[in-house]
Request: fold
Amino acid sequence: MANFGEGRRRGTGGMLPLLAISTVAEYYRLPWKPPVTAGLLAANTLVYLRPAFLDPLIPHISEVWFNPNLILKHKDLKRFFLSALYHLNEPHLVYNMMSLLWKGIKLETSMGSTQFASMVLTLLGMSQGVTLVLAKSLHVFFDYRRAYYHEYSVGFSGVLFALKVVLNSQAEDYTSVYGVLVPTKYAAWAELVLVQMFVPRASFLGHLGGILAGILYMKMKSSYSGSDPVAMVVRGVTRAVTWPLRFLNSMVGSRRRRITGRGRVGRSHNGIAGPGIWRCQSCTFDNSGWESVCEMCGSGRGRGNGWSVNQGQAHSSSDLPLDELRRRRVERFS
Reply:
């Protein structure tokens, strides 16, 4: 999260193409393209760019600043949820989205899109909620309101800190955070301190809320063995939205399963393989309904149950000697 007192956007230009190139290159090499991560990247970027066709639908940044005082005073859920999707400038957006690209691909690939979407929604609510509780607690117990209770902040970094905790929760190795080697499972704490040192105007409370939300999420996950209710909702909405596409796909698939070609060899209980197809009682070859003579052995098409007509003489297909059947096949294909 970035913490500023007013809603001016300080663009530097030139960094969004870098984000686009990195995203395309990363997705191009993947055999499976994580859709939820792509959707989050697109949503954050579109909110920042505010294209003309979406501008009337997207609230202005002044309406969605995360401000604990205003959220609690007016019960403003719009500020509570939407502030995470807004960014102040290109460096703020690109830095967060590059982090989301890496973390999102790893997590969504390992846990699946439905579970990943459920986790992101849960961590979004939890990180914002923990930040709100921390700000209110500092105000009530320490009368420390100027720096946190009345601050304005936006950005996806609270969720990113939570994702970092989840991603590294089981790691046993070491990693480098801005050149400092630390145990991977504690990398989020090191990044919290170092980011505040290098970017003093970053929202310390928002980042801390994200880390605590990630820890709380992992504790709840380990102690709860039932079905994830958020994942069930996400799965239900996804199935409802994609039902028309699945219905059309099933219709197309049923047409593709129709029998095509000249024929096939096999047995049937009644000697009929399907509409427009008749099965020779002598060699069990499936012939087109337009043919009156078997393409495999030359026997005439049957009249009745197991009878065939050949050169005006009626013979039972079961009476054909093996040598005669072989002779007909040789004559047919010689």
